[in-house]
Structure to design on (648 residues):
C-alpha cells in the first residue's frame, strides 16, 4: 500500500490535512496492528455463560442482554490495568516472557540482516517454519486426527479398562501418550517455547504429582466412591455411576427443587474433577502468600515512593521522555461507566441474569484484589492462576440456588482480572517496541469491543445453525462441536450455583475435606521461602514457584493429560536442551519458531474449516479416532453397569 497509494495531501494547509499514504510500512505500525488484533484474539469468557444458559439450561437470553454482558465483561479489566501499570509494566523485573516471542518475530520480519554462511536469516527461517507448520497441520487437523493423542497402551490392551484408564491421553492418565498436534500442545498453557525452563519444570512437577500420585491414589483407594465413576471426567454423576439428570432438580422459577434433589440423591464428581477443585483452592492461597513473601517488599516500595530511579526500566524512561502518557483518569472513567452500566443491566434484566447489584460490586472487589498478585506471577513466569473457583465459591455460599447469577459473578470477577493481565502484557510489549501509549490505548479499546461483538455474533450463529451443538450423545463421531469448555462451565454452575458449595464442599456435602487444600496452599510457599532464607546460596530454591505448580493445573478439565505431557516435552527440548547445549540457535531462532508454528497453524485451521468443515466433509477411518481408548471412561467398581461399558 505504501508503494501504490497516492501521497497527495488533502485539505492542505488546514488543521484537517491528511494523506492516504503515511509512508513506508514500519515495525511500529505492525506492532499496533498486532495489539489491535490480539486485544480480542483470546476466547471471550462471557460466551460460555451465554451458551451454557441457552444450550444446556435451555433458558432464553435475549441478544441485547448477551451483548451487554459480553461488552462489559471484556472492557472492565481496563480499569484494573490502568491502576496497576506502575507495578506490572514499568519495573524491569516484570519482563513478561510471552512478549519476547513477539519482539523476536517483529525483529525477524523488519530488521535487515546478512545471511550467515551456510545458514538462514531469521526471516527466511520464519518463512520455512511457517510453510512447514501450515502444510503439516492438515494431518492432525483433518487427515489423521489420532496424531493429537497417540495412546499406545490402548492399542496393546484393547479390552482392559484399567490399562486404557492409565494410557488414554484424552480420557485417562495419559501414561506414555504423546501428541504431535501443535494446536493441542499450546491450547491451554500457551506456547511451550515461550516458557522459561524454571516455569516449565514447575508445571511438570505439579502435573506429575497431581496426575500420577494424587489422582491414582484417591481413585484406587475408592475415595468418595471414586471407582463408581470414570477416573478422568468432567461429568456429574449419581451414586450408582449414572449421569445426573440436572433438568429433574430445577423448578419452574429456575431454582433448585429441594424435594426432587432429595429423591435423586447427592451429586458426585470424578476423582480428577473433585481433586482439581482442591488444587484450585490451594492455588489461590498460595498466590497471595507467595507474592507477599517474595515480592512484598518491592510492591511496598513502589507504593510508597512511586519509583526509585535505580529500579526504573530503561524502556519506561524512554517512554516517559518521548511520549505523552495515558492519564489515569481515562481508565477510571472507563471503569466507572462500565460498573454503572453493568449494575443497570443486571438490575433491569434480573429475570434473565439473576445477579443483584451488590453481586457486581463484590465481583469487582474480588477482581481488583487478585490482579496484582496474579499479574506478578504472569509477568515473571508466563503462567497465571485463575479466579474461577474462588468466585464460584464466594457467590455460591452467599447466593445459593441461582446458577445464572453464579456464572455471571464468575465472569465479572475472573474476566476483569484476566483482561487486565492481557492489557498489561500489551502495555509491556508497547514499552519494548516504543509504541505511543495513547495510540496503543485506542487500539486496545477498539480491538476489544470489535472482537467481543464478532465473538458473540459467531456464537449466536453457531448455536442456531449447528444441529445438536454441544450434545456429545447426539453428535456424530469426530464432530468438532463437543464444546469441552462449555461443558465444564455448565457443570461448575450446577455444582456452585444450582446446588451450592455447602451441599457439596460444605457441612452438608461429602467433599468437605477438600477445603483443607486452602491451608496446604498457604503453607507450601512459606516452606519454600524458609528454605530460601536458610540456604540463600541455593538459587534454585527461589525458582520453586508454588502458584505456578498449582495454577497450571487449573486448566484440567477441560485440558487433558496429553495437552500437558506434550507441552512439557517440547518445553524441555527448548528451554533446557536447546538453551543449554545450542544457545546460539536458541537465541536466534527459538521465539521466531514459536511465532511461525502459531501462524502456520492459524492459517491452515481457517482454511480447513472454510473448505471442508463448513461443507461437513469428513473422513471415516481408524486414524480419525482422536484417541482409540473407548473403555477409558468406564468405571471399575464391582457391579456398576454403565452404557457402553462392560462389567468390571
Amino acid at each position: 500500500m505504501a508503494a501504490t497509494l497516492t501521497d497527495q495531501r488533502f485539505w492542505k494547509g488546514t488543521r484537517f490535512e491528511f494523506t492516504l499514504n503515511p509512508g513506508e510500512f514500519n515495525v511500529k505500525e505492525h506492532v499496533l496492528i498486532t495489539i489491535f488484533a490480539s486485544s480480542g484474539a483470546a476466547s471471550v469468557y462471557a460466551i460460555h455463560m451465554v451458551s451454557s444458559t441457552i444450550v444446556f439450561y435451555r433458558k432464553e437470553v435475549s441478544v441485547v442482554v448477551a451483548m451487554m454482558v459480553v461488552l462489559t465483561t471484556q472492557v472492565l479489566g481496563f480499569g484494573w490495568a490502568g491502576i496497576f501499570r506502575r507495578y506490572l509494566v514499568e519495573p524491569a523485573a516484570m519482563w513478561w516472557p510471552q512478549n519476547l516471542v513477539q519482539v523476536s518475530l517483529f525483529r525477524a520480519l523488519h530488521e535487515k540482516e546478512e545471511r550467515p554462511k551456510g545458514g538462514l536469516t531469521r526471516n527466511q527461517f520464519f518463512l520455512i517454519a511457517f510453510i512447514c507448520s501450515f502444510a503439516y497441520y492438515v494431518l492432525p487437523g483433518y487427515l489423521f486426527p489420532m496424531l493429537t493423542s497417540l495412546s499406545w497402551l490402548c492399542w496393546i490392551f484393547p479390552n482392559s479398562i484399567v490399562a486404557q484408564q492409565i494410557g488414554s491421553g484424552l480420557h485417562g492418565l495419559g501414561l506414555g501418550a504423546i501428541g504431535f498436534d501443535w494446536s493441542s500442545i499450546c491450547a491451554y498453557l500457551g506456547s511451550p517455547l515461550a516458557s522459561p525452563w524454571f516455569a516449565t519444570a514447575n508445571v511438570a512437577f505439579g502435573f506429575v504429582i497431581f496426575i500420577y500420585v494424587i489422582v491414582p491414589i484417591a481413585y484406587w483407594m475408592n475415595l468418595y466412591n471414586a471407582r463408581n465413576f470414570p477416573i478422568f471426567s468432567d461429568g456429574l454423576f449419581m451414586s450408582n455411576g449414572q449421569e445426573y439428570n440436572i433438568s429433574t432438580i430445577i423448578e419452574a422459577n429456575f431454582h433448585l427443587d429441594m424435594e426432587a434433589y432429595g429423591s435423586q440423591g447427592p451429586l458426585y464428581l470424578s476423582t480428577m474433577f473433585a481433586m482439581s477443585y482442591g488444587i484450585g483452592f490451594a492455588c489461590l492461597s498460595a498466590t497471595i502468600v507467595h507474592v507477599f513473601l517474595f515480592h512484598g517488599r518491592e510492591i511496598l516500595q513502589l507504593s510508597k515512593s512511586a519509583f526509585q530511579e535505580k529500579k526504573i526500566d530503561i524502556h519506561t524512561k524512554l517512554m516517559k521522555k518521548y511520549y505523552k502518557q495515558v492519564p489515569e483518569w481515562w481508565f477510571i472513567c472507563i471503569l466507572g461507566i462500565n460498573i454503572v452500566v453493568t449494575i443497570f443491566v443486571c438490575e433491569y434484566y434480573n429475570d434473565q441474569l439473576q445477579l443483584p447489584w451488590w453481586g457486581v460490586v463484590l465481583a469487582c472487589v474480588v477482581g481488583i484484589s487478585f490482579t496484582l498478585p496474579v499479574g506478578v506471577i504472569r509477568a515473571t513466569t508466563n503462567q497465571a492462576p485463575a479466579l474461577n473457583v474462588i468466585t464460584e465459591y464466594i457467590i455460591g455460599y452467599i447466593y445459593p440456588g441461582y446458577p445464572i447469577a453464579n456464572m455471571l459473578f464468575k465472569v465479572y470477577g475472573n474476566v476483569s482480572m484476566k483482561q487486565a493481565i492481557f492489557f498489561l502484557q500489551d502495555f509491556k510489549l508497547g514499552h519494548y517496541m516504543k509504541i505511543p501509549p495513547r495510540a496503543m490505548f485506542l487500539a486496545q479499546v477498539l480491538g476489544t469491543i470489535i472482537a467481543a461483538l464478532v465473538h458473540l455474533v459467531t456464537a449466536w450463529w453457531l448455536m442456531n445453525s449447528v444441529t445438536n451443538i454441544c450434545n456429545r450423545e447426539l453428535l456424530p463421531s469426530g464432530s468438532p462441536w463437543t464444546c469441552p469448555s462449555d461443558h465444564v462451565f455448565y457443570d461448575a454452575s450446577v455444582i456452585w450455583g444450582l446446588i451450592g458449595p455447602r451441599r457439596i464442599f460444605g457441612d452438608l456435602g461429602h467433599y468437605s475435606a477438600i477445603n483443607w487444600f486452602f491451608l496446604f496452599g498457604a503453607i507450601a510457599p512459606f516452606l519454600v521461602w524458609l528454605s530460601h532464607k536458610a540456604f540463600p546460596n541455593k538459587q534454585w530454591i527461589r525458582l520453586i514457584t508454588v502458584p505456578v505448580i498449582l495454577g497450571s493445573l487449573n486448566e484440567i478439565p477441560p485440558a487433558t493429560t496429553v495437552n500437558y505431557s506434550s507441552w512439557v516435552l517440547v518445553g524441555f527440548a527448548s528451554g533446557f536442551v536447546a538453551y543449554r547445549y545450542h544457545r546460539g540457535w536458541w537465541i536466534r531462532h527459538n521465539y521466531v519458531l514459536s511465532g511461525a508454528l502459531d501462524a502456520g497453524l492459524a492459517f491452515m485451521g481457517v482454511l480447513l474449516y472454510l473448505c471442508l468443515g463448513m461443507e461437513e466433509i469428513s473422513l471415516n477411518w481408524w486414524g480419525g479416532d482422536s484417541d482409540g481408548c473407548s473403555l477409558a471412561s468406564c468405571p471399575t467398581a464391582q457391579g456398576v453397569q454403565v452404557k457402553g461399558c462392560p462389567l468390571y
Remarks:
- The beta strands are 9-10, 18-19, 236-237, 268-269.
- The radius of gyration is 25 Å.
- Residues 131 and 600 are 6 Å apart (CA to CA).
